[in-house]
Each structure stands twice: as C-alpha cells, then as structure tokens.
Amino acid sequence: MQFSNSTNKENITFNANEIKKSDNYNCKCKSVVYKTIKSENYETLTIKTDNNINSYDFLFITEGGGIYKSHNTTQEIKVGSICIIKSGEKIEFIPTIGKKTSYYHISVVCLQYTLFLEKIDLFQNSSIANIGQNVVIENIFSNMIQILKENKSGSEAVLNTSLFLALSIANYKLLNCHEKEDPNIEKINTAVEILRHDTTTKISPEEVAERIGISYSLFRRIFKETMGTSPAQYQMDIRLKKAQELLTTTNYSIAKIGMTLGFSDTAQFSTFFRKRQNMTPREYRNKHK
C-alpha cells in the first residue's frame, strides 16, 4: 500500500496487489489514484496500459481540464470527461496551466470488462466521453480508494462491482444526453464551482442560488437531479474531503485545519469529522498518514 505527497500536489495511490490473497477473483483492480495539480504547476501525466488484452485504464476529470493526446487524436478534455486507455495504448494528459486540476485514474485487468465494454455505448465511437459533473461517480471512486486502503477480505469483489456501477452510470448519462437540456444546468455548473472553492462554507446554498439568479427551491431541485445530492450535503462532502486531504498531506495542527475550514474551534471540527468518519481527526491522521 502506497501513499505519497509533495508540497505542490496531492497524490493518493493505493495498490491493489496488496489485497489479501484470499480474494481470488478473475477481475483485478490494480490501482486507484486521486490527484490534484495546483494551478501554478505544469505536469504531464503519461499512461501506458499493459499489453494484456483485458487491461484498461480509466481517467475521470473532476476539476479543471487540459489536453488529451494519443497516437490518433489530440483534444481538450474538461470536467466530466471520462477516458479509456485500452491494452497497449499510450496517452498523455497535459493539465491547463493556471487552473487547478483534479482527476481519478483507475487501472484494471479483467475479461469481464472487455465483455461489458463491448455491450455498452460509452466508448463505442470514441475513447473520450463527456458526461458532465457527477458527484455519484466521484463518490464511488473515492470509496474505492477507501476500500483499497482498508485492505479487507472481499475487497476485490466490491471494487469491481463499484467500477461496473460507475461505468454504467456514465453510460446512462451519455445515452440520455440527447434529451433537451435544462437551461439552468449551466447555472448549476457555476454553482458547483462556487461551492468547490468555498471549503469554509462562508456562503450558504441560498446565497449561491441568489448569485446565479434562480429561486432556492428550483436551485435545490435541479442541483439534486444533476449532482445526485443536495447543495448543503455537497458542501459538507467538499469540506470533509478537504479535511481528509489536509490531515494526510500536511503537518498542520488539528486546530489549524479546523480554522482553515471555517470551524469556530477544534471541538466543532472534531464533532463534524467524527460524525462522518466514526473517528476523530487525529485518529484518522494516525491511521492514514
């Protein structure tokens, strides 16, 4: 199991080769990576899959974007782009300079993925599909990292079920993208950007609705339909993810992390964290750093 970080990026990698040997499944989720590249840095991600015919890598952009290059295509990818790199292929992803970029990178090898991908429309016409922001898929990938990290018996089956579910949701979104798009969706995308950059929750969902020019009731309904969760819960999810990031990639004190995230004191931060993680911030840091 590996964890690495540096001062200018967050890179969370867990290697499934360390899953317990009792998990003897044909499918193997080799690794799950969540990475954030700061806006001032320039870094190219190069992915080359194994030559095994059933090997695949998936890239899902959750923030920012950049240029995707393969042997036969060069195109821009953005938030909500999901890419597949098939066996023996090599691609480069060049994040946009001056813009914070985050993505998930999953590597798998499995005959069942080959059979599954032949039957769905997601990558039939292109190696890149844009499904838009989707917090459900983000949470699935985040949970996959947690499962790998805990390294318990039965993990492999859950990991593969999770990835099949994420790809099925992406396929569903793609198949239904031809439906007339609600004109307020662009406003929801703006709202998501506001909430992503407000980890201290200084702005309320009602204020976000006012800022983008729609009623709160309409904002909440469309946000939940689009993102799969309410604006308030999305705020809490973003705040929790930032807390986990700071606990595992910095040496900040618990008090400083709580202050950074807008909590009035350490006790309030600890209560918030323990309610969602079933452990204190210090226990989480000791377990995962």
Descriptive notes:
With 289 residues, this protein is of the alpha+beta class. It folds into two domains: 4-175, Jelly Rolls (Sandwich), CATH 2.60.120.280; 185-288, Orthogonal Bundle (Arc Repressor Mutant, subunit A), CATH 1.10.10.60. Helix content is 43%, strand content 23%. The protein has ten helices and eleven strands. The protein has helices spanning 111-119, 135-150, 155-175, 185-196, 205-212, 216-227, 231-249, 254-260, 266-277, 281-288; strands spanning 4-6, 9-15, 28-37, 45-48, 55-63, 65-69, 74-78, 81-86, 90-95, 101-109, 128-130. The strands form two sheets. The protein has a seven-stranded antiparallel sheet, covered by helices on one side. Helix 8 packs across helix 9 (266-277). The relative contact order is 0.11. Residues 1-25 have low confidence and may be disordered.
Blueprint of the fold:
Elements: E1 4-6, E2 9-15, E3 28-37, E4 45-48, E5 55-63, E6 65-69, E7 74-78, E8 81-86, E9 90-95, E10 101-109, H1 111-119, E11 128-130, H2 135-150, H3 155-175, H4 185-196, H5 205-212, H6 216-227, H7 231-249, H8 254-260, H9 266-277, H10 281-288
Helix pairs in contact: 2-3, 4-5, 7-10, 8-9
Instruction: Kindly report the name of the CATH homologous superfamily of the largest domain.
Output: Regulatory protein AraC
* CATH architectural grouping of the largest domain: Sandwich
Please write the CATH class name of the largest domain. Answer: Mainly Beta
Q: Give me the number of helical elements.
A: 10
